[in-house]
Each structure stands twice: as C-alpha cells, then as structure tokens.
Amino acid sequence: MLLPLFLFLLTACGSIPPLPGGNKFPTPAPPDYRQEANWAATPFTADPADRTPGRDLVNKQVSAPADVFYIHPTIYFKARGKSQQWNANLEDERLNEAVDESAILNHASIFNAAGRVFAPRYRQANIRVFYPEGRSVSKQALDTAYADVLAAFDHYLTTWNQGRPIIIASHSQGTTHAKRLLADRFDQQPLRQQLVVAYLVGMPVSADAYASIPVCQDSTQTNCFVSWRTYREDFTPKEDYRDTVPNIAVVNPLSWTTDEQRAPAEKNLGGVLYNYEKGPLPGLVWAERRGPGLFTNKPKFFGDILFNRKNYHIGDYNLFWLNVRKNAALRVSSFTK
Q1: pLDDT higher at 82 or 318
Q2: Is position 25 within any domain?
Q3: What is the rounded CA–CA span in Å between residue 170 and residue 119?
Q4: Other C-beta atoms within 10 Å of 84: how many?
Q5: Domain carrying residue 217
Q6: Residues 253, 123: Cα–Cα separation, whole Å
Q7: Residue 1: its pLDDT value, please?
Q8: Do the domain assignments include residue 159?
C-alpha cells in the first residue's frame, strides 16, 4: 500500500532513534549512476513519478520538451538493516521503497506534465545531522550526499540531456544539495542558459544567493528560482531561533510573486494530501508571505483533527500541488517560446 509523503512524514518523524555508530563515520560505497537501480525515477522506467492523482491529469513525459532533475528530501529517519551509518546505504530496499512511495510519488510526479523526470537515489544524510547531536558529523555527511547528487547530475547531463531545457526541483535536504548544484553548475556558467526555473523548497535560500540567477517575480519568468517554507498562520518560532540565512527569498506559490498580499484559497487549484488517488482538493488553503516565511490556514481533510503541528514543512509541495504543476508547465512554455 502506498504511503504518501504527507502522511508518511507524520508517522516517521515521531521518534528518531540514535545511530548505533555514534559519531563514527563509516560510509557506504558511492553509487554508479550508469546502473538503473541507482535512479528512483527516469523517463525510461516505470516508477511513481509517472503517476498522476485523480482521473483528469496526464503524464506527458513522452512529449515534454524539457527535463526535470528532482532531489528528494530526507527519508532516512531510522537506522536499520543495511543503513546503520550517518549516510544511507542504497542497497537498503526498505528505505528505497519509502523514498519511492513518499517523495517520488508526491513531489516528482508534480512535474511529469512539464518535463522528463530524473530523480537519483543518493546517500542521503540521516535526519539527525540537522539536530545538535549530529552537528559534529553534519558537514561530512551532507558533503557525502552532495557528492552523489553532483555525480548523478553530471551523468544525466552527459548521457541524456542533449541541450534540453532543465528544471531543478527539490525539497528539504534535497534543497540543501540543489542550492550547491545551482552554484556549481549554473550560476555564471553556460548551463544557466538551459535553466527554466529552480524550485528550491523547504529550506531558507537567500535572495542574493546567486550572481546570475535571481528570484522569480512572476509566473512566467525563467532563468530564476522560487523558494518558500510553509507555516500555519499562528506559528511562532522559539525565542532562541534565528535564521542564519540573510534576506530569505519567499515566493508565494498561489500568486508567484514576492509581495505580502494574501492570495485567497480560490487561487489554490488543488492540494494533494493523504489520499493521492482521490486527486487534488481545490481551494485547500490560502497563502501569504510574512517576512521569511509563507503562512496559511489549517487545511481541512479527513483526520485533520490529529494534524495539530504548526510547521507545515511536510506540506510545502502538497498544499499547492496543482499550482506548482501548472506553473512548471507554464514556465517551460515561456522558455521554449
């Protein structure tokens, strides 16, 4: 039974057990991206990125003029089986299945109307690198993960791209790596001319992060990036919390602008929550930029009485699913014209 990301993360994040190795740093072998098994999604295989929710949407990868390189968020919560280190082992079949049935289904499939979807498996860092107990190894663990992302992208570029327009899409830990990828391969590089847009979602990104890649200011602009982090309207950060990223970029995914005017729920074409098969739920939430965050109301869905968290990180894409899908296709159309 498939377990969509919106529900998967609700259950998986409840408890995060310590890694057996403590701060020791053995790492699994790096992946060979010539092997099909090291890709969670490609347009040449049947995978969850091919699916669409409901009955009305269509997978258009066969005819799409662009490519999408998607980098999934942290799904490595529990050290078990072959994953007993700070970085996941790509031979861990249970973890691979969790990636496929959550992030690939819920996020990567958004983009199958805009481009051919490529999503690498990578030795993702364990969730604990983002907590104090993982601070001493976080850089090494994240560097290991990024090395895989970069190798996968370079393989994609030389093997499959053939000059096609590119969308970069990511969430959470994936955005940590996507930010570096844009800096290393696109910013002030010839490849920037192939960049349709980058969806850098779920992590803070400075509006000044890149010399040649600005924040998108409308729904059709290209060679730019969008970013947001979603919170319930009554969310307040802890007193000792401070963003370390200056001038954080926030683009409202209902209006595709950076202004602070509320975009009403009527502009929400449809969110996809716990029931992927049911299809998008129109008018799910409104959205409003407030400083460095995107704020919204509590969505209504079956079982919402149990959904009491105020940080909507897990719903950054899901709450605005159809808007992101249509925007990606619109920007590709704008780019190709």
Answers
A1: 318
A2: no
A3: 10
A4: 16
A5: 5-16+32-336
A6: 30
A7: 32
A8: yes
